[in-house]
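Morning!

This is the sequence you dropped in the shared folder:
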Amino acid sequence: MQHREASTATKAAVAGAFVAVIAAAWAYGATQLPPFILPAPQAVGEAAVLFFTSARQLGHLGATLTHIGVATALSFTAGALLALAAHYARWSAPAIHQRLSPFLNAFSGIGWTLLAVIWFGVSTPTVIFSISVVLLPFAIVNLREGLVALDRELDEMSRSFGRGGWRLFTLIVAPALIPFAAATLRIMFGVAWKVALTAELFGGSQGLGYLINIARQEYDTELIFTVILFIIIAVYLADRLIFQPIERASARQFGGQVAR
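The structure's back. Tokens below.
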């Protein structure tokens, strides 16, 4: 127990020292470079205050959160349906796992965004489509692993007691998939932020990516730094305070391993 506490304290000290070094390097670099290249931390702090008190900029934040939420829900649902189809309708497995999933993994997110701009124009559907299609293979692959990991003996025992069809799925399969679903959503949330900025930059009319594009044109580097730092902090806190506890709780309740 003491060794674990010492290890945790050491990790926290190292992380704190790393942040302090980065902050010191940033502050020093800001004195050597023009503000439009590297603004001072104080200027970024002032821009952050303006950001969170501006209804217009908070509207862009809300748009990005909406894009990410809708796209994650759509891609997770579609991925779950495809993974289940490949599991129960075995004839479809080669098309889904050996053709569709590798194709989606290989195709560039920027490529999807540019195609979506042609198909849907600069609009919200373009952003949601671009995010969804990039997230889709994560859902397919992770939920496939969950279905492969199902306890075959438990499945056979359930069938022997007459628990087949829908009851087997709701009582055995669905609970066993919950840890994999939690891990999938955790991964998708982090990836969605990266894709959302690119999609909004090229094909969006609102959102943080669109806001960064406007700030780039106006050389508003303080706003760019504000958005970048907000995303880093928000994604880290959401992962540690929301997704990781949910994943751990589901692993304890239903079995599975937790990524650190």
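Headline: Residues 179 and 256 are 6 Å apart (CA to CA).

More detail when I'm at my desk.
O.
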